[in-house]
Amino acid sequence: MTIELRPLSYALGAEVRGLDLTNRCSDADWRAVHSAFLKHGVLLFRGQKITREQHIAFSRRFGELDSHESLPLDRDRTHPELLMVTNDAKEDGSPSNSRYTGQMWHSDLSFTLAPALGSLLRAVAVPPVGGDTLFANMYLAYETLSQRMQGIVDDLHGIHVPERKNAGLSAHWEAENRRLNPPVAQPVVRVHPETDRKALYIGEKVKCFEGMTPEESRPLIEFLLRHATRPQFVFRHQWQADDLLLWDNRCTAHLALGDYDPRHRRHLERTTVLGAASGHVANLESIA
Ligand SMILES: O=C(O)CCC(=O)C(=O)O
């Protein structure tokens, strides 16, 4: 089968047409998908009526999958490779823990020592309008900084915490989340291991730079975030049911907008491809 690519925005993203993921992707198609992944950062496969097992099997073509030990509350009980991003109420009727997942600019698992290589998010049910996701091209974000600013950020580490917006977790789970995920320092600029390009690695989970106080760090964090997420560098995805969206966490950041009526169902399932080891447990004194 010959696949076709259709760019989704100036900055990043392409739709892959001509692939039915209910069948095993041939090696030739997979090589084409992989090279498009490296080139476009985000790939969209529409109309994929795949099972959970097919979702997991296709994801494994990209590498080892995370079993989501860092986010135990959100993973599926029988498939630890699947993370639920859902507003479906829990069995006891209480609200889902993951209904606000992703509502901060971030790159997946940046707060761990094995940040994600890629993520594959499958839309099972989406609201009739809204519930969009934004993606920013972090190569462009780095490359459009002045040389002097590039020199400054090249030398910094950002301290990432496993914080979530409006999570509404119990005190017990908040404490458990902090215990499982102590703050981690990651380079603010990372070299993509497959393209050799430098990308900015910054998001709203960065609380300060290593060796600097939060007050000293905040203006630069805010500037970098504003710069990286300017509209010219962003693609906005409007979901349809049976979309499978794949993104490269090493050169993109994303944000779930939460722009939908919560009375409508929004249920997505994600696999996470493990990336190379990166960062170190942060020196806590630097965020005191
Ligand atoms: O729900 C979304 O649109 C994105 C979810 C997200 O940010 C994630 O899975 O990391």
Task: Write a brief structural summary.
The chain is α+β, with helices and mostly antiparallel strands.
Description of the molecule:
- This protein has 288 residues and is of the alpha+beta class.
- It has one domain (4-287): Clavaminate synthase-like (Double-stranded beta-helix), CATH 3.60.130.
- It has six helices and 16 strands.
- It has helices spanning 27-40, 52-60, 138-143, 147-154, 171-180, 214-228, and strands at residues 4-7, 14-17, 42-45, 83-86, 116-125, 133-137, 157-160, 184-187, 189-191, 198-200, 206-209, 234-237, 244-248, 252-256, 267-274, 280-281.
- It has a seven-stranded mixed β-sheet, covered by helices on one side. It has a four-stranded antiparallel β-sheet with strand order 11-7-8-16. Strands 12-6-14 form a three-stranded antiparallel β-sheet.
- The chain is globular.
- The chain starts with a strand and ends in a 7-residue tail after the last strand.
- The relative contact order is 0.25.
- The protein binds 2-oxoglutaric acid (AKG).
Total tally of structural domains: 1
**Ligand species:** 2-oxoglutaric acid
Structural class: alpha+beta
Q: What's the overall geometry?
A: globular
**What profile does the largest beta sheet have?**
7 strands, mixed
The CATH class designation is Alpha Beta
| Spatial strand order of the main sheet | 1-2-3-13-5-15-4
What's the CATH H-level homologous superfamily?
Answer: Clavaminate synthase-like
